[in-house]
């Protein structure tokens, strides 16, 4: 038995002192081929420094061996020494048999640096040299998948699957294809692939994609079942709870929806969107005070979130808490942050608290964007009528009646002022 093999056996049995001695004996006595194999094994086992010592010795002896240079480049990348890695890779010429491999390693390096365009160009160059090489097609597909360019990834995964490659580097290509289709909204195609994956091979992300795809196909019963399966296997996967709750809503199971979103809150208390969804579902369930609590908590976590702010403001207006709405929105108005819907809510609040000048200003702001909103047009018309501004009243009434011609009361009001 060679010293190299003895060293590996000792390492396998945890005999580190004996390994160190055999390793030194291998360096002194074993052939270069044995040392190269030893370096490969040590690298795969995570003993990079020992592998580096061997490769460094071998590259001095074989300065034209590009395989060793690339191995040293990979070791340098692992050690976060990108400059050294690039130095080794730059020594591999286009004429080398190892040039394609050097391109692949370079692509990985540039991707870790965030230089995605350069990484893509390296992979495309490798593909031009070896267009049918599965490893290159897979690397390019994974690049596009990880950079969310799913359409390009789909074509590459399809080519690999058609050629009979269903798995590579422990990655299930059928799963990747299904997820990619789901990400671009092609749910019919996605489900055909996702349903092929055996449950034992499904991780949490894929389970979510399967459930999410059922949801988007409006197959809410299957969506509920799939989301529950994910919840049971990984209850900390907080993204599932709003969708599971929505699926229950679609199935008219509001109580289950509220219970589910409350479970989500217990898992992720700092996700404002879960609080927002909880407020919306509590409203559906007729739990108005609970909805207010949830909206306020979401706003507290994310005060800049305009959607939650709007829902909280709507709650105050709907429940005639106009003073609270002014306290909520007036700081926003002071900072000149404009939103047509919030301006409308401000207008109603000022109107109900008898500040007609400010109400008129907010109605004017809201009217820039809400001319197709019947509710706004009706309230604006009534506001201007109340303040004796018949011209503005008739303008808003006219637009309102174009949208709601069957409102006889408002039509009669419009006719009353026809001689103005």
Automatic annotation (TrEMBL):
<keyword id="KW-0802">TPR repeat</keyword>
<dbReference type="InterPro" id="IPR019734">
    <property type="entry name" value="TPR_rpt"/>
</dbReference>
<dbReference type="Pfam" id="PF13174">
    <property type="entry name" value="TPR_6"/>
</dbReference>
<protein>
    <submittedName>
        <fullName>TPR repeat protein, putative component of menaquinone-cytochrome c reductase</fullName>
    </submittedName>
</protein>
<dbReference type="InterPro" id="IPR051012">
    <property type="entry name" value="CellSynth/LPSAsmb/PSIAsmb"/>
</dbReference>
<dbReference type="InterPro" id="IPR011990">
    <property type="entry name" value="TPR-like_helical_dom_sf"/>
</dbReference>
<feature type="repeat" description="TPR">
    <location>
        <begin position="272"/>
        <end position="305"/>
    </location>
</feature>
<dbReference type="Pfam" id="PF13432">
    <property type="entry name" value="TPR_16"/>
</dbReference>
<feature type="repeat" description="TPR">
    <location>
        <begin position="204"/>
        <end position="237"/>
    </location>
</feature>
<keyword id="KW-0677">Repeat</keyword>
<dbReference type="Pfam" id="PF13181">
    <property type="entry name" value="TPR_8"/>
</dbReference>
């Amino acid at each position: 038995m060679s010293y190299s093999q003895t060293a590996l056996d000792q390492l396998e049995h945890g005999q580190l002192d004996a390994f160190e001695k055999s390793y030194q004996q291998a360096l002194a006595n074993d052939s270069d081929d044995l040392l190269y194999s030893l370096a490969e094994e040590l690298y795969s086992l995570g003993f990079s420094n020992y592998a580096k010592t061997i490769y460094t010795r071998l590259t001095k002896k074989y300065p034209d061996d590009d395989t060793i240079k690339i191995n040293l480049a990979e070791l340098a990348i692992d050690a976060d020494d990108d400059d050294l890695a690039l130095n080794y890779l730059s020594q591999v010429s286009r004429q080398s048999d190892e040039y394609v491999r050097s391109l692949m390693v370079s692509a990985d390096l540039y991707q870790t640096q965030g230089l995605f365009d350069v990484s893509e160009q390296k992979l495309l160059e490798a593909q031009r040299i070896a267009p049918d090489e599965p490893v290159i097609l897979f690397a390019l597909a994974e690049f596009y998948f990880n950079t969310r360019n799913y359409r390009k990834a789909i074509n590459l995964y399809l080519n690999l699957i058609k050629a009979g490659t269903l798995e590579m580097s422990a990655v299930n290509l059928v799963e990747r294809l299904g997820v990619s289709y789901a990400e671009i909204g092609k749910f019919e195609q996605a489900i055909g692939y996702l349903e092929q994956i055996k449950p034992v091979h499904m991780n949490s992300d894929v389970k979510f994609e399967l459930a999410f795809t059922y949801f988007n196909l409006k197959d809410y019963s299957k969506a509920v079942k799939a989301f529950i399966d994910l919840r049971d296997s990984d209850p900390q996967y907080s993204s599932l709870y709003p969708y599971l709750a929505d699926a229950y809503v679609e199935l008219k199971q509001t109580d289950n929806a509220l219970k589910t979103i409350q479970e989500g809150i217990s898992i992720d208390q700092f996700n404002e969107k879960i609080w927002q969804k909880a407020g919306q579902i509590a409203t559906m369930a007729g739990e108005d005070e609970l909805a207010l609590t949830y909206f306020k908590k979401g706003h507290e976590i994310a005060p800049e979130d305009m959607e939650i702010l709007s829902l909280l403001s709507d709650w105050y207006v709907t429940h005639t808490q106009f003073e609270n709405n002014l306290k909520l929105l007036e700081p926003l108005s002071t900072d000149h942050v404009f939103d047509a819907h919030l301006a409308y809510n401000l207008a109603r609040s000022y109107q109900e608290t008898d500040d007609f000048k400010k109400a008129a200003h907010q109605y004017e702001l809201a009217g820039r964007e809400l001319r197709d909103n019947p509710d706004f047009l009706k309230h604006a018309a009534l506001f201007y009528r109340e303040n004796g501004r018949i011209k503005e009243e008739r303008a808003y009434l006219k637009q309102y009646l174009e949208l709601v011609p069957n409102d006889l009361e408002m039509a009669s009001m419009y006719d009353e002022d026809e001689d103005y």
